[in-house]
Amino acid sequence: MKVLSVVGARPQFVKAFPLSRALRREHEEVLVHTGQHYDAGLSDVFFAELDIPGPDHHLGIGSDTQGRQTGRMMIELEALYEAETPDVVLVYGDTNSTLAAAMVAAKREAALCHVEAGLRSYNRAMPEEVNRVLTDHVSDLLCVPAERARSDLAAEGITEGVVVTGDVMYDAIRWARERAVGSSDLLADLDVEEGTYVLATVHRAGNTDDRSTLKAILGALSALPKPVVLPAHPRTVSRIEEFGLEDVTGGIRLVDPVGYLDFVRLLDGAERVATDSGGVQKEAFYLDTPCVTLREETEWVETVDAGWNVLVGAESAAIRAALIDEITLPAKPSLYGDGNAAEAIVAALAGLKGTTADPTVDPAADRRNGGGSDRTAGDDRDSRNSHDDRDDDSDDNE
Ligand code: UDP
Predict the structure, then answer these.
(1) CA-nearest residue, atom 23 of ligand 1
(2) Which range marks the domain in which residue 290 is found?
(3) Is 203 noted as a catalytic residue in this protein?
(4) Nearest-CA neighbor of 281 among 169, 193, 131?
(5) What is d(CA 365, CA 221) in angstroms, rounded to the nearest whole number?
(6) Which one, 30, 112, 368, 385, has the greatest CB density within 10 A?
(7) How far, in Å, is the centroid of ligand 1 from the Cα of 332?
(8) Which residues lie closer than 8 Å to 166 by C-beta, 6 or more apart?
(9) Ligand 1 proximal residues by C-beta, below 6 Å
(10) What CATH number has the domain bearing residue 288?
(11) How far is the CA of 11 from the centre of ligand 1 (A)?
(12) What's the domain count of the chain?
């Protein structure tokens, strides 16, 4: 089977590497980097230290408005799908790269697999939420991390092609945790001791792009009676400069974004983490670090229900209290699988009908016949394409 995987942003490199390894043991993978994250500290460092081959194609599409960035990606990806003719297009998470790759794949013959499907914050003001919902609705195979995601999809009418695989970021952490302890000197370099500092990350537009919100978060972190380490995303750095908030960062060890192993080491050694990241909430749970989430809602609800994550929004007093109050941590349940999600996803891909993994079905003939063969995960794709064939006076249709 030929699988074309599309990545573009930091969390996608982390999600892709365990799956890429598992995939390449059985299938051909073509890795495409859209260029959504182009900063070396947000991109190149991951390919180097995670020991994954560099991308086969780099589209070089950097920052832009939501619409232009997504549109430019779609134009480039369409040409690439045309040239590579993959059996499956694989997308991760909730970025504009995810959405662009999904929208183009949905109108072609390739099956579309969404890894980390079914997550919902139910906050449509987040571009990520729009990307998740739309991608799920055109996917053929939806690999979800937990049962809740499956039932949330069912509530939207998506029941076909949903497979609970666990979370591929758990696979990544299992690989990285020991290596990070052995390879990272960052705690010593930053002059912080294990278990005594707060790690913070802030980069969601809702927190960085409004001056008073960013000021409230930085002010709360800066005034904490313990060391705070903040590897700052380029967007956050530029907003701090733009809003003139340098003075508010006085009590924070503001550093450049760090590589994955260094970050895992920092998170593992932290007393608590304050974050608005999606991935970091889960990673904190896997590494037994209590999490304070700088948002009003989360798509990783299970970590909150389990008592290891608390939602505080961006209000200074609430952030401070959550980071200094004594906490009692409950026993940890298993939430997102057993750290072998990559194998489960590869197995689910093999069940996709109409790909070379299933030689009993000729996808073209199947579509000509109205997609009537016995189908499971490929159901939506086949019926969608048979519909496209009827609407064939548009150049869009394959
Ligand atoms: N991360 C990293 N270095 C940093 C900050 C984060 O390697 O300085 C990793 C982190 O371990 C996680 C991923 O980046 O795997 C999360 O990315 P981000 O917070 O940008 O995206 P989100 O998860 O919110 O989509």
Answers:
(1) 279
(2) 182-324
(3) yes
(4) 169
(5) 61
(6) 112
(7) 23
(8) 145, 146, 336, 337, 338, 339, 340, 341, 344
(9) 10-11, 14, 201, 203, 231, 257-260, 263, 277-280, 283
(10) 3.40.50.2000
(11) 5
(12) 2
Is 379 part of a structural domain of the chain? yes
Which among 27, 33, 114, 203 is annotated as catalytic?
203
Q: Do the domain assignments include residue 195?
A: yes
* Confidence at residue 355, expressed as pLDDT on a 0 to 100 scale: 60
Residue 60 has pLDDT above 90, yes or no: yes
CA proximity to 310, closest of 272, 283, 268, 337? 272
Probe target for ligand 1 pocket from 277, 283, 309, with the most ligand atoms within 8 Å of CB: 277
Residues 192 and 156 both lie in one domain: no
The CA distance from 205 to 236, in Å, is 9
Distance in Å, CA 233 to ligand 1 centroid? 9
Note the residue count of the chain.
398
Q: In this structure, which residue's CA is closest to atom 8 in ligand 1?
A: 257
Nearest CA to ligand 1 atom 17: 11
**Residue-wise DSSP of 314-340:** T-HHHHHHHHHS---PPPPPP-S-SS-
pLDDT tens readout for residues 255-300: 999 999 999 999 999 999 999 999 999 999 999 999 999 999 999 9
- In this structure, what DSSP letter does residue 370 have? T
Give a yes or no: residue 176 inside a domain.
no
Instruction: Choose the weakest-confidence range: 18-22, 46-50, 233-237, 351-355.
Output: 351-355
Atom from ligand 1 closest to the CA of residue 233: 8
Place of tokens 């460092």: 45
Q: Which of 184, 201, 273 to mutate to test ligand 1, by most ligand atoms within 8 A of the CB atom? A: 201
Quote the pTM value: 0.89
Query: Per-residue pLDDT tens for 346-381?
Result: 999 998 866 655 544 443 334 334 443 333 333 333
Residue from 10, 45, 173, 201 whose mutation best tests the ligand 1 pocket (most atoms within 8 A of CB): 10
